[in-house]
Design brief:
318 residues, MetI-like fold, 13 helices
Length: 318
């Protein structure tokens, strides 16, 4: 059952990626813009009509959209996503450089959000009506209401401009070799913004699930039969974690969509910033590659959360 379920989810993921590639390809190709401007910039005005036509033909842009999609998807399966108009390099090579940077923010943010949410949510949920319960209920709304863009600017102002404690942009120091400590130092501010603006909703989810499970029939029966409170809370925690993992998996796309803004503000060289750069410069091969790879990462992360949910919840293995 477990293997069949994973294969089913994998098949669904492939279908999602397939439809995403079609929709994004059609939208991008329908967007206005002259590829010669993207390639030559201000010098494009000096090109003759015949030179423009030759450039369009060389890039295959004179062919029907579906023919271009079939050719692009065939090359993509082989790992060839074309050549970037602006950088003149393979899109695949550029993406290989950017993916690890985005994953540094994503993985660390997810781990911290999960850990903090579990601690706060369980503490408040098991102490309904206490100061912890009321405080978390209030703070979760406050944190969730904070605009990430505004918080990012405040953090840059306080921790970079005024105090100089932390770097405000990039993922390594100028002239640095990109050591682990250097990268993590640059990642502190963007990760902090992501965690603070997300942890409220996730901790509140755990808090309410614990309250719900604590009032459930099985918990009342267990207490009536004299089962130790420690064992009851262990069961409640496990039953609250399963839907939390599912909720985390469902909301994973929001992390990647939010990374566009976070990476742009902090000049973090990841997929989000690359997508903005490609869109602004009308670099369609690079934009398509960035969107496609982001979709693949989202699907893979959702499959991983499904596997974790199966491990935690034995009922799904049947």
């Amino acid at each position: 059952m477990t293997l069949r379920y994973i294969l089913k989810r994998l098949g669904q993921g492939i279908l999602i990626i397939f439809f995403l590639s079609i929709i994004s390809f059609l939208i991008i190709n329908a967007a206005p813009g002259d590829p010669t401007v993207a390639i030559y910039g201000g010098k494009a005005d000096r090109l003759t009509n015949s030179e423009r036509a030759r450039i369009v033909k060389n890039y295959g842009l004179d062919r029907p959209v579906m023919e271009r999609y079939i050719k692009w998807s065939g090359q993509m399966i082989k790992g060839d996503m074309g050549i970037s108009y602006i950088e003149g390099r393979s899109v695949s090579e550029i993406l290989k450089e950017k993916i690890p940077n985005t994953m540094v923010l994503f993985i660390n943010s997810i781990l911290l959000i999960s850990l903090i949410s579990m601690i706060l949510g369980l503490k408040a949920g098991f102490n309904e009506g206490s100061i912890w319960d009321k405080l978390l209920s209030t703070l979760s709304i406050v944190f969730y209401s904070i605009p990430p863009f505004w918080l990012a600017l405040i953090f840059i102002l306080v921790f970079s401009v005024y105090t100089g404690w932390l770097p405000s942009s990039g993922n390594m120091s100028i002239g640095g070799e990109g050591s682990v400590l250097d990268v993590l130092k640059h990642a502190i501010l963007p990760i902090a913004v992501i965690v603070i603006t997300h942890v409220g909703a996730y901790s509140r989810f755990i808090q309410e699930k614990v309250k719900e499970e604590d009032k459930s029939y099985y918990a009342m029966v267990a207490r009536a039969n004299g089962v130790l409170e420690k064992k009851i809370r262990k069961g409640i925690t496990k039953n609250a974690v399963v839907p939390f993992i599912n909720y985390l998996g469902i909301t994973i796309p929001t992390f990647f969509s939010g990374s566009v803004m976070i990476e742009t503000v902090f000049s973090w060289p990841g997929l989000g910033m690359l997508t903005v750069k490609a869109a602004n410069s009308r670099d369609y091969p690079l934009l398509m590659g960035a969107i496609f790879i982001t979709g693949v990462l989202v699907v893979l992360c959702m499959i991983v959360t499904d596997i974790i949910e199966i491990i935690v919840n034995p009922h799904l293995r049947k």
